[in-house]
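REQUEST FORM: STRUCTURE PREDICTION
Request ID: SP-0412
Submitted by: Lab K.M.
Chain count: 1
Length (residues): 116
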Amino acid sequence: MHPFAKRHFDKVLEKGELLGIDKSCKYYSSCHHNNLEDCTFCYCPFYPCRDESTGGKWIRGAIWSCEDCNWIHRTKVASRVLEEMKNLGINKPEDIEKMRIGLNKVKEEVKILYPP
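STATUS: Completed
RESULT:
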């Protein structure tokens, strides 16, 4: 996991609630074309999800880009994902990799409730 992602997940998991919009973030104006409702999952727990229905896509054939994905940044989606992460016992960033299979199931369940 990238060190920036680890720091961000530390903050999210410690707080245990949605972070909302962070307009002070230097990436806010360029991230996802300002269509954000919530910045909790600035670093997506599903990355790389490889799911083009979210707006993500392969670039140069080998790199997963989330640039056009706003799904995880919708408030209802972020809230449900965070709730399910807690239910899985994800308390620290390292748990995200350990619980990859459970997280993928969460992604599919949340997509049914809140389609991209």
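NOTES: The chain has one domain: 3-113.
Reviewed by: T.R.
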